Amino acid sequence: MGRSTTSKDAEALFHSLHSAYASTPTNLKIIDLYIMFAVVTAVIQVVYMAIVGSFPFNSFLSGELSCVGTAVLAVCLRIQVNKENKEFKDLPPERAFADFVLCNLVLHLVIMNFLG
Amino acid sequence: MAALETPQSSTLRQAFGNVIKYESVIHEFDPYFNYRVTQFLTKNGIYDFWNWFDDRTWYPLGRVIGGTVYPGLTLTAGTLWRIMNSLNIPLSVETVCVFTAPIFSAFASWAAYLLTKEVKGVGAGLTAAALLAMVPSYISRSVAGSYDNEAVAIFALIFTFYLYIKALNTGSLFYATLNAISYFYMVCSWGGYTFIINLIPMHVLLCIVTGRYSSRLYIAYAPLVVLGTLLASLVPVVGFNAVMTSEHFASFLVFIIIHVVALVYYIKGILSPQMFKVAVTLVVSIGLIVCGAVLAVLIAMVASSPTKGWSGRSLSLLDPTYASKYIPIIASVSEHQPPTWPSYFMDINVLAFLVPAGIIACFLPLSDASSFAVLYIVTSVYFSGVMVRLMLVLAPAACIMSGIALSEAFGVFTRSIKFQLPGVTQNSPVNAGDTGNVMQNDVVKTEKSEDSLKERPSRKNKKKEKDNVERATVVPKTEKRLSVLPLEASVIAIFLLVLLGAFYVVHCVWAAAEAYSAPSIVLTSRSHDGLHVFDDFREAYGWLRHNTEVDDKVASWWDYGYQTTAMANRTVIVDNNTWNNTHIATVGTAMSSPEKAAWEIFNSLDVKYVLVVFGGLVGYPSDDINKFLWMVRIGGGVFPHIKEPDYLRDGQYRIDSQATPTMLNSLMYKLSYYRFVETDGKGFDRVRNTEIGKKYFKLTHFEEVFTTHHWMVRLYKLKPPKNRIRGKTKKAKSKASSKRSGTLKKNPWH
Questions:
Q1: Nearest CA of chain A to the CA of B421: how many Å?
Q2: Is A8 a member of any domain?
Q3: Which residue intervals make up region (Disordered) (chain B) (predicted)?
Q4: Cα B395 from chain centroid?
Q5: Do B226 and A114 touch (CB under 8 A)?
Q6: N or C: which end of chain A has fewer CB within 10 A?
């Protein structure tokens, strides 16, 4: 009995999540896609490291943190560009994107240095 | 900005006081090492510096300088020197090194202004900057000549905190990036960067727990963790410790927590309430299982290391008794001892009273920035109570809090005066709101200003306040509640606060001039026939430099290692870096052993000269005999044949006639007191205040080569072993034949 109610709840939850998400604007969906891509790449790297071993460790770290880093920065961009966010209504989206690019530049400069 | 010039110029003026008094010289011990590294950097360039393997210290082990030094300070000074020289201002490296600290203390003052401005406002900022400009604790580490890591690190600390608060207040990713870069500069400069990477996650956690989560918090924190960890790993000294030691785990844990919280808020935003409840129950049941598994793995990993992943120094901060139980080296450094109560008053003076008032002012109203300030002061007070060296981290926090308190107090009093001056009453929106609220604020404000004021005016205040309120025209504006105190009380209060400030300034100037200006390599003392200058250290290093071969090795206690390599330019056995406990224990054992055993140990290390600091003639208390107990303890920690009770009489180290024979035969005793009886005929030691035990003795394996003018530094040379031994050589059967050896000359080499 319990399992069917939980599975029904899970289905209902899934549907409501899906319908709520479908209403987000396209530009945010694109950013979400980029975040997904970055996270999947990070997971692939971890799996590879688990199979092959972690030498050289600095390369592994820089690869991991570059994926996690761009994901985090893309989340920040999404927060700042989201029109429903009251705190950032004065911020022009171009400024948000410029900050995103600058931060990514610094991140990848460091990554290139640390990659070895 | 004009008002900001004054705090900075007062910092500079105070910091230069000792250059005027003594000369432009580098102080203490650690700065000499930093100076030597900077010399190397400016001469050989950055690639050689990065890959430098120093073979003139820790003989015969050497030291990898590129990988064990925090490069921030040397790179900063090197860059400054480069810029100056490229502009054709021919400053020497020593000048740049001596004056780096005051320049950065002025910058720190500016950074404190910016930080406090973000927390409370411009007035508080200016006050905090003015207080930081003069606080003795910071002055002690930023005088001209104190060329140590803290000189730039404190500036980096305050600036990083400022950028974090700015990113938190504005939600701008640009400031978050700058924050990460400033954190990188801090990691380059000082080992205390772990304070930042633990305080900021603590603050984020506090904000989340108190319900102040906002997207600005995410933007201020998450990029810092990723970028900051990467940048920290770039510095060779930190390397992979940035992801493997427990000091950084807090940041990763809070990183995960903030992502979970952000996700929860996001889903809550897009779902209806009942659906959200369903989601919560589902996630919690699955999530708990996953979390439990991950936690178990993590705990197993951490528990497998004996120190649970923390480094020795961090452990001694968390558990103050750790060092004295397990690592005598850390316990022996005087900077690592807990401070005494009077040193708080000495170092931050009046601020000690103003800090609680500042904490209260931060709560009205409480914002993210002011909660950070409160957390900063609370943690830094705890750490300063563990280690006196960390009073330096407390100083900026105390200045910020006191600046807030003072500016709030001044605001209330001047507002009271302004609104009660005759001629201003017609457009007074004063006493708006309810009388009840005014009463409330009145009580709070009078409590705050009660520190140094008399009791009587407070009761008169309350009564007068009631009358004022009823008589004044209450303008029904919904304004910010203003509280007003009576005119006389405000004037007296302002006068008293100014007097408090005056006392603070007087104390700071005195402390800077008398207590913290001493370069400790040149000592002075006043007596009835004027000022005596003791320049014995430089005399000894100069003698070493000019009268020994370049490759000669000098053995001394580790305190003097940096100075010897920098000023005398000779190879040393151990120095202030204290990275190898066994090597230091070897030297300590040699100093505690009888002459022959000590000679053997030193000979095995290729030592030619032994340097001993002795203060008995002039009363210099930090000499090697006073440090002897650490030599015994550290040596005994590694070599069990050195037992501390052998040197103690009734639990005390004594050098008079009651001293134990082991003590009287030890190398340290002999090298310190050799020929000491010739100075005054009785051998009276002015530091220990007794006559020495063994007065007339000869040295068999060492010979004295130099003693400085005031007998403060004594240099001995190892005698080479005799080429030819007269008489029969006694080997293992010395016990049986010793009775017949009355006619043979006693041979010290067997």
A1: 42
A2: no
A3: 430-471, 724-750
A4: 11
A5: no
A6: N
C-alpha distance from A107 to closest chain B C-alpha (Å): 6
Which residue is listed with tokens 């409840």? B277
Taking Cα atoms as reference points, which of B176, B192, B272, B275 lies closest to residue B227?
B176
Asked whether residue A3 is assigned to any structural domain, the reply reads: no
Count of structural domains, chain A: 1
Contacts of B379 (CB under 8 A, 6+ apart): B195, B199, B202
Q: Give pTM, 2 decimals.
A: 0.82
ipTM: 0.92
Instruction: Give me the pLDDT at residue B530, please.
Output: 77
CA distance B541 to B564: 7
User: Quick check: B7 and B15 in contact, CB under 8 A?
Assistant: no
Residue in B468, B495, B353, B478 with CA at minimum distance from that of residue B413? B495
Residue for token digits 């009631």?
Answer: B466
Residues in a beta bridge with B533: B524
Contacts of A109 in chain B (CB under 8 A): none
Closest alpha carbon within chain B to A24: B270
Least Cα separation, residue A13 to chain B (angstroms): 6
- For residue A77, the chain B residues in CB contact (below 8 A) are 173
pLDDT band (50, 70, 90) for residue A27:
confident
Residues of chain B under the 70 pLDDT cut:
1-24, 302, 304-314, 316, 320, 322-331, 422-483, 517, 727-750
By residue range, what is the domain housing residue A66? Answer: 26-115
Taking each helix axis as running N to C, give the angle between helix B150-170 and helix B215-234, from 0 to 180 degrees, rounded to the nearest 10: 150
SS3 content of chain B, % helix, strand, coil (to 5): 65, 5, 30
**pLDDT tens track for B55-78:** 888 888 888 888 888 999 999 999
> Tokens for B186?
């801090």
Beta strands B530-534 and B523-527: pairing type?
antiparallel
Q: Measured between beta carbons, which residues in chain A are less than 8 angstroms from residue B219?
A: 76, 79-80
Q: Which amino acid is at B558?
A: W
Average pLDDT over residues A68-87: 90
Amino acid at residue number B14: Q
| CB atoms near residue B34 (< 10 Å) | 23
Chain B neighbors of A10, CB-CB under 8 A: 282
Q: What is the pLDDT of residue B454?
A: 41
Query: In terms of DSSP H, where are the helices of chain A?
Result: 2-22, 26-52, 57-81, 93-115
For residue A2, being part of any structural domain is answered with no
SS3 B526: strand
pLDDT number for residue A69? 95
Distance of residue A17 Cα from the nearest chain B Cα, in angstroms: 7
Task: Report the pLDDT value the prediction gives residue B441, as an integer from 0 to 100.
Answer: 42
Q: List the beta bridge partners of residue B53.
A: B64
Tell whether A9 is covered by a domain. no
Taking the CA atoms of residue B283, residue B284, residue B285 and residue B287 in that order, the dihedral angle to the nearest 10 degrees is: 80
Contact B270 A114 (CB under 8 A): no
